[in-house]
Design a protein that fits this description.
Layout (H helix, E strand, L loop, with lengths): L11 H7 L4 H9 L2 H9 L5 E2 H7 L5 H13 L3 E6 L5 E6 L1 H33 L2
Antiparallel strand pairs: 1-3, 2-3
């Protein structure tokens, strides 16, 4: 991980993410995307088959779900399991790393749930301001 000079309020780990060439920045773009957060959250209670995952994440297209799952599998956060049946049954579940990430994301999701009304009010105030 590339290093840069940390400010007094920035940890060295975070300052590494601020550097343009840090691989952690690529991972951040993967896990912080809207669809990845929602897919990871949908999988927190256990593995799901593709169609159940698609139906559980409102608004996601099959193409976007496929792309998101491919990236999360490559990152080691989601495991794709194929049952040798005819036709094959494919399910997706969190790896231990994915479970750890979802536990960390839960605080953010709780905050969003708690503060959504305040944020919507701020949007409305801002949009009324000339």
């Amino acid at each position: 991980m590339a290093t840069s000079k940390a400010s007094p309020t920035t940890s060295s780990a975070v300052s590494g993410l601020l550097a343009g060439d840090c691989p952690g920045r690529t991972l951040l773009s993967h896990v912080a995307s809207r669809w990845a957060v929602l897919v990871l959250t949908a999988l927190r209670d256990g593995p799901l088959r593709f169609h159940l995952l698609r139906d559980g994440v409102g608004g996601i297209s099959e193409k976007m779900l496929s792309q998101t799952l491919r990236v999360l599998c490559r990152d080691g956060l989601v495991l794709r399991e194929v049952e040798p049946t005819t036709p094959p049954k494919v399910s997706y579940g969190l790896t231990p790393l994915g479970k750890e990430l979802v536990r960390k994301l839960q605080g953010l999701l709780d905050w969003i749930t708690l503060r959504t009304d305040e944020i919507v009010a701020a949007w409305e105030r801002h949009d009324r301001t000339p």
